[in-house]
Amino acid sequence: MPSGFLCPLVRPCPHAATYSSTKCLAGHRPASVLLRGFVGGPHNQEIVKRPDEELVQTVLAEFRDILGLNPFAKPLFSRVFAWHRGMPQYTLGHLIV
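Given the sequence above, the corresponding structure tokens read:
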């Protein structure tokens, strides 16, 4: 069972997502699931400046499209954490120190 997905640069969507309830509860079929969406990445830093609710709605719309979620499904809760430029982006040929 997959534990998430990454979007290619040619598709504007959340940079990545993980299915946390699948990773943590392998083989268990809960009535609800825990999904985590990651936005921004090295090519879309501006998105993290948007209001939290807009980010939640953006990620939810992409989950509906990519995962085929019920269009009427609503999150039980959501949390937004912003780590501006929080993940190092190495370039091809970078030196290992």
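Residues 1-97 form one domain. Try to locate this feature in the token string yourself.
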